[in-house]
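Board notes (copied after class):
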Amino acid sequence: MTTLGGTRRFRRTAGATIAALLVATLAACSSEPTPSGGAGASEGSSGGGEFPVMIDHVYGETVIPEEPTRVITLGLSDQDPLLALGVKPIAVYPWWGDYESATWPWAQDELGDAEPVVLNGGVRDEANPPIEEIASLEPDLIISLYNGTTKEQYEQLSRIAPVVVPDEEYADFAITWQEATRATGEALGREDEALSLVDQLEQEFADAADDHPEFAGKTAVVAERFEAGETIVRTGSDVRAKFFEQLGFTIPAEIAGITPNDYGELYVPDELITEISKDLLVWNVGFAPDARRTVEALALYEQLPVVQNDRVLWVEDEVVSGAFSWGTVLSLQYALDELLPQITETVN
């Protein structure tokens, strides 16, 4: 039941074409990487995948000549699908959340005792990837999926090691958790295993929807606060909107004539806040402890029928909110386990 949209199977190519590509790839990369200070090699059960693997993506093709053992994840949440497949990165990129190894609690069991380097001193700056630091770690694979990797950055990184970036439809932070999982598995020569993980989680959502027919036909609004004077409503392909859509809820495509931007963000000014009153109102505020007090103090807020009917769900726990927002094959399972009982109680 995998619903990836445009799924591409990896290709195994023999003969002169692949040989030429391998020569070019290996010439651009470190030929015999050796472990660098404190990073340690990636660990995980061998998937028995066939190599070389050639991957098509937005900037062309990447050849991965043999099973990677020193993997760096450069996308903001790319470590999660890698860990879900049993491979521990030697370095990861920071997003948010003050957790050791930039790895949240839902992925700590998979990380085990590994201690990947947190790139760039733990400071997020995806516009300027730390090229020299990455090169010093001598990776044999760089995964940059949930990211906005430019062609120039891709070319710089490709001089260090094979780089996996998304297809054009998933570029610039548009990749889904399903495609991120699949693409990671493809790079490891274990696409079938990755697709199985996707199927399992999608089945979890389908089962939850079947168990709760009362969700069907109800409209849910997922809202957040970042700036004074406006509320962000998540819609479209945003993972937070999709979370509720997979449970059977309807997500509004627009509110008060306002349409979302390319990232599925719909900005509703406070003077129109009554328009977000639907069957269920979800406030994702775990990253902003004061947000609830701010929202509840808004002049029109108490007039919302959804508030008066007590159909408001506050996602205030930092880890649950983080899992809901990270939107990975690991975090979404955690979020589903934690939120489903709360959603059921609120709706009923």
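Comment from the instructor: The chain has two domains: 38-202, 212-347. DSSP finds twelve helices and twelve strands in the chain.
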